[in-house]
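User: Please predict the structure of the protein below. I'd like the answer in structure-token form so I can feed it into my own downstream comparison script.

Assistant: Understood. Taking the following sequence of 102 residues as input:
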Amino acid sequence: MADFQGKNVQETVDPIIEVTITPDRPLSVGRHRFQLVVVDNSNNESEPDTIEVIILDTTKPTAVINSVPRQPEFGQSFQLSAKGSRDLLPGKIVNYIWTLVE
């Protein structure tokens, strides 16, 4: 396991490395480039190879709708609120789509 936070270098003897992500130290959503240089038993270094990894946010936000007052009287205006709606960090809700369905 490897923690690449702060763009630090990791050196291993194993050809596979796990990029360790934790809730308190996520790799941000977006594009990240990783580089690999290999060294042979004569201490010769290869030219670097790179890969671009795109971290996606595929978790749906949660919509929560409330009415104030909860049971308005006939002819009385009221408000709808989406303040209880949430998205997992680092995501944030940027748009609200309201529809009268019945």
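That's the full token string. The chain has two domains: 1-56, 58-102.
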